[in-house]
Amino acid sequence: MSSVDIGMISIVAIIVLIYLGVYIPIALGVVSFAAIWIMRDSYDLSFALLKIAIGDSAMEYTFATIPLFTFMGLIVSKAGLGADIYSVMNQGFRRITGGIGMATVGANAVFAAVTGSSIASASVFSKMSVPEMLKHNYNPRFAVGVVAGSSVLGMIIPPSAMLIIYSFVAEQSVGEMFLAGVIPGLLLAAAYVAAIWFMGRFTPGFVGGTLVDEGELMPWSEIAVKTLPIMVLIVVVLGGIYTGWTTPVEAGAAGSLLGIIIAAVRGRINLRSLWDTVIETGHITAAILFLITAASMYARMLGLAGLPNELQNILGANDFSFFWVMLLLVVLMLFLGTILDTASIILIVVPLFLPLIDTMGLSLVWFGIVAVVAAEIGLLTPPLGLSCFVIKATLDDDRIALKDVFLGALPFAFVMLLVLIVLIRFPVLSLALL
Q1: Which residues pair with 208 in a beta bridge?
Q2: DSSP 8-state symbol, 381
Q3: For helices 140-151 and 402-425, what crossing angle results, to 10°?
Q4: Count: domains in the chain
Q5: Cys staple from 25: which of 13, 181, 294, 371, with CB 3.0 to 4.6 Å?
Q6: Where are the alpha helices (DSSP H) in 266-321?
């Protein structure tokens, strides 16, 4: 059996193990370790590569971005900034059909800029937006669909945990990945708002709802109080990276400190809750470190097996153009999105395509945005749409079935696909800020 055959069997084995419920890093690490051992008939080589994989992840200076931005996101959630920005957005869209849905998208976009987590967004806005929309007679499927769709903004608009993971896998700058995600994230948010307007105009039955015109408008002083903290955080974090005043690590540290100050001033945190947040950050960081280490081992296994070169030879022999390469990538990611989570898709598919994309002279930063957006569609598709499961679990409402969440999210998954096509066709949208 050739190395290529062993590599292909390993990929299938990893997918099967993950689908059967095996923890992703364990599936990646164990199968890769065994495959290297079999290919080279060397137990020592497998251990040597494992040692290198651990050193290349945990010992990297940029790895500090993970615990810092994770901590900042948790602190911001505890400070209640998500609820504040949502109430402000609701004021702006209150007299538009589907306005609460648009406010949810806008608030999610801002919230994503300081949390970087789709799951956190889905959890927070399920508790705020869905009850508010149901109160105003919105279609339940539309209500949960808006939250599911807009929650994916947390993985695209920086600081995004998925962009950090990609930067390690592809050995790209975390700062450049963050900057590259700004325009695509805002483009997706704008596309969602436009889609809600379109649905409200042409499919009012699906949207439902009544115009929100209750009470007096929020005074500008209150709007300023609610928006100033989160705006300052965004300026400190993303502004520092964009201007070059801070590295991503330093920006994460500054954002974390500022988040603590905001939460303390608001009386939302004490020593006990701060310690709990630190512990939760440690758990999340350890899980991501384990994931990155396993992914590094997997990439080395693919290199030894020669699979990326084999894929490149096959595509070259059949004269596959840029269009067909991108079509293959998107179809593969959409298919895997029905059975695997986003991190698994990124870690399995990206190492296969990286050498090919590099050989074609394409930007690996642009490719990272395309890969993350394509993989994120899987958060909205059955049977393993993680955001949809989080929303259902958070709501705990017998009136809304998991089927309703998936059907409500379907139009937003389609919008994501359209935006993905635009990003592939116009790479400058991802690279304009670099």
Answers
A1: 138
A2: S
A3: 40
A4: 1
A5: 294
A6: 271-305, 307-317
